[in-house]
Each structure stands twice: as C-alpha cells, then as structure tokens.
Amino acid sequence: MSVYDQYETVIGLEIHVQLATQSKAFCGDDARFGAAPNTHVSAISLGHPGTLPRLNKRQVEYAVQLGLALGCEIQRHNTFDRKNYFYADLPKGYQITQDRRPICVGGALQIPSAEGEKSIRIHHIHMEEDAGKSIHDQDPQHSLVDLNRAGVPLLEIVTEPDLRSPEEVDALMTAMRQLVRYLEISDGNMEEGSLRCDCNVSVRLRGSDQLGERCEVKNLNSMRFARRAIAYERRRQIDLIEAGCKAEQQTLNFDPVSGMTSPLRDKEDAHDYRYFPEPDLPPVQLDEAYVDQLRATLPPLPWALRTELATDYQLSPYNAELLTQEKATALYFKRLAAETPHFKAAANLLINKLLPWVQERKTPLADFPLTTDQLAELIQLIADDRVSNAVAYQRLFPALLDRPEARPLALAEALDLIQSQDDDFMATLVREVIEQHPDKVAAYRQGKKNLLGFFMGQVMRQSKGRANPKTAEALLQRTLAAD
Ligand code: ADP
Ligand code: MG
To answer: Which of these three, 247, 263, 291, is where a domain ends?
Structure first.
C-alpha cells in the first residue's frame, strides 16, 4: 500500500451561481452576458459618491427558491454587509455580500457516489454581487478590465466539508447545475462563468475524525480544472505532512498550464476584509405568505421527476436518469406518455432519436417538428408489429422529419414499409433464402446453429425490412429443422 493510500481527501465547496436576472443586484444596469465591454456600467455600478443601491427583488426570490429546493431554513430576517478590498475589477472598493445573517442556512443535496446515494450538507447560501472581469491575455503590456459583470447578482452556496474525491465534487457540481436549470434561476453554464467554485481541500489519515489544515483553490471554472487542482493539492499536502512539515492554511490559484497550484499574492491574501453592515441597504424581511407562495409554485425538481419516471412509468433507473437531466426532456416525456401506453418504447424513441436531434441542432426540444400525437402513432405501429423497430427508426422516422405534416401510418403505407402479415409472402421468402445457400443449410443441420443469424439477416434484407422478425425467425427454424 502506498503512503498516499493512507490518506483521505476532504473537500468543501464555495459555489458561485450567477443569476439569470435582467438587471444587476443593486441597480438597473443590464446583467446579461455577452455585451461589448464596459457598456453596462452606470454610476451605481461604479459606486460613485452619492449613489445608492437598491435590492433586485428577483435575486431574493431566486435565493428563496434555491433554499426551499435544498431544504434550507429561510431566514426571514437577513442582512447585507460590505466586504472591503482593493482590486482593479472592483470599482466600488467593496463587495456587497451577506456575512452575519445569510438568507438560507442548512439544507443538503443528494449526489450519486461510489457507495451509493450520499447527502452533502449545505452550510448556508448568501446573496452577493459579482466583481468585474480582469483580462490578462489581450494586451502584452496591460491588464484590461470589463466592468459589465460588476454588480451582477450571485448566490454563494457554501457546503460542509462532506466531499471525499474529485468524482464527488463533479457529481455535486452536476447536481447543482441541474437544479439551478430546473429552477430557471441560472443557465448554470460553467464555460461562461455562470457556475464556478472555490475548492477547500485538506487531507487526513484514514479513520481520523479531525479535519486537517485546508487550502482554498480559487476560481475553478471547469470541472476538469477542479479535478486536476484537487489531485495536485492532495499529493502536495501529503508530501508536506510526510516530510514532517505542516500544510498551512492558504489561498491558492490553479494554473491549468503547469497543473500546479500557487499562493495568491493579491486581494485574496488580505484576510482582513473589514466586514461591516452595509449602511445603504435595509435588512431583508420576508413574511410567511411570501415564502409560502414561492414554496407552492416551486417547479418540479429533478429527483421528484426521476422517481416519478421510475415508478409511475416503470422506466429503468438509467433511462429515468437520462430523461430527467433536463427539465424540458422530462416534461416532454410525460406529454408523450399521456398519448401512448407504451412508456418504454416512448422513452427509447426520445433517447435514441429526439435527444440526438436536439444535440445535433443545438435547438430546444420544443422546436422538434413532429407532434407527440404523431410519435404516439409511430410507437403504436411498432407495438402492433406493423413496422419493425429497425425500419421505424431508420426509415420511417427520417421520412417523417422530411414531411412533418404526414401521418405515420399513411406514410409507412406510401413508402411500402408495412410488415407483411402475409404467410405466403414470408414462406416464399424463407424458401428462396434457403435455396440460395445450400452449403450453409447443410452446416446448420450439422449443428452450426448460430447460422440462424445469417439466415435472418438475409430474409430481412430481401424483404426490405417488411418481414416481421418474429414470424421470420419461427418460420426459418421450422423450415431448417425439417428434412
Ligand atoms: P471561511 O472561508 O469563512 O473561513 P469556513 O472555514 O467555514 O469559512 O469554510 C469555508 C469552506 O471551507 C466550506 O466549504 C467548508 O466546508 C470548507 N472547509 C472548512 N474546513 C475544511 C477542511 N479542513 N478541509 C476541507 N474543507 C474545509
Ligand atoms: Mg471562504
């Protein structure tokens, strides 16, 4: 056993979710991603003297929705604080955040793990605003600053140190991304920075219940980087301990090029942020009716839909998982399932045909040109053995996409795709195939029974897919056995 195996990794996350509001957290500036640099920057975003912040009520609403979904306690009275530091992308010189009384405390999110389902506890969720964006790779001499992002509303979700591996971190971030998308409070897009996390990493000997000294790796904006940063930190900290040194508590930056972490020498080093109560914003007071109303109107949540698909519709856990990755897919499945009793066939069609269609075109499922009624008819044709599964998938489905106004049965008839129920047709076909391959027939009769697959292939091909596979197989077996 290597010395590394004696240690366990302990990880806690600070997850930042950029909220999909139209305007910023404390002023009316447009909060949306993608505009020309420094075009969404008013005097309030810049914190000019004499300006006053005003809280965006959507931010509060989104925070409460996320808190309710995660089973947090919603703090009816919560307050804002100023976190002071100097940095070029922070024009006000402070960030408005919630330090003493955050909006949500407690709660948990379930993730799949190597040992089965695991609950990751949430410490709290607080509201805050984003800083601007420093750009270091566009000018060789200077760093550039885009302040469009300054003041965009964020939720920070702080977990307990319950995670034990990069895989669990990945699972938690995936579950969080899915949840914020279900709630429609954020697009959860890691590439565009709407979902980021800081990883707090420590190591300890297996079996110990004491926490080790932790390091915080900042601003990991992709899961790949987070995995690599955690793996690097684990090794570095174990090496230090094994060398007789102590891992020090530090704030680190991860460099994806070198794959290493290094101490941050800028704002993150200054631990004294001089937090004080934000004097320009009154406390947030939430009444029961407000919270109740948000609870009552919460959209369906991923785990509830997953269970529903697995139990009410009897899909396999794997298919239930696939179909609930996006809310739109799960709801589409339910609409389709309302029109057909063949739930499994509906799930298969959705997974094998509609989802690839969506992925190829990068358009939402709502744009899919066929109606659920047409799809139900297609599924029924397969269920009734009138069109084989293969022909339905490979020929009828594409033909329908070319002529989305057509009815599946009528189109199948027009294209001559209906399976023959005609016994003479089948018998002739089987006899012809057998006559064409006397050597293979002899081999089959001498015991090479796996040649049945070959004969089946021939029959299906020569019938142009119109042979019913079950009938063909029975007939072939009978004919080959005779003599
Ligand atoms: P702060 O950053 O304000 O000091 P905390 O110390 O409570 O806040 O922790 C911040 C994050 O660090 C949390 O996600 C928590 O789970 C995590 N954390 C705290 N201690 C450890 C540790 N020993 N190992 C790994 N993660 C830790
Ligand atoms: Mg922290």
So the answer is: 291
